User: What shape does this take?
Amino acid sequence: MPDDITLELVRRRLQKPDTWRGVLFDGFPRTVAQAKELDNMLASMGRRMDRVLFVQVPTEMLVNRMAGRLTCPRCGRTYHPQLAPPRNDTLCDVDGTELIMREDDRPETARRRISVYLEQTLPVLAHYRQQHVVADVDGTGGIDEVRQRILRAIANGRRGEEHDQPQD
Assistant: This one.
């Protein structure tokens, strides 16, 4: 989707009252150009980016998490052979439909997606590091453990506690 359309959708959504206490973006902004436009948009609304989370996970662990995912084509529920296996290796626990593996869930696709992320989206992190709003979060470990780290990082941002230190 073109940036102007994406940014307009974000602008409209940010004008709704339920966003006034805060919002959490996931997968946006994806480019430095989008980040700069978002910064300008937020400033024009008297708002700012409080915290940017960088959930750090080793590449091979990411590939393992992303690859092998199974999806129910009927209800959309997802499974993972190691992380969230279905009771039956090939059937959805909810409706018994045969599970499929999408092209996006294959290891080679996961590696390609990570490569694109590093090339296009990682510079956004550098943009926000300059603003000292990045919190690095260890993304290894179990779901509950990582969730607690993320919640702590968000809470620290809300209280205005220490963000990234300037890097020389």
User: Anything to note?
Assistant: The mean pLDDT is 90. The first strand starts at residue 52 and ends at 56.
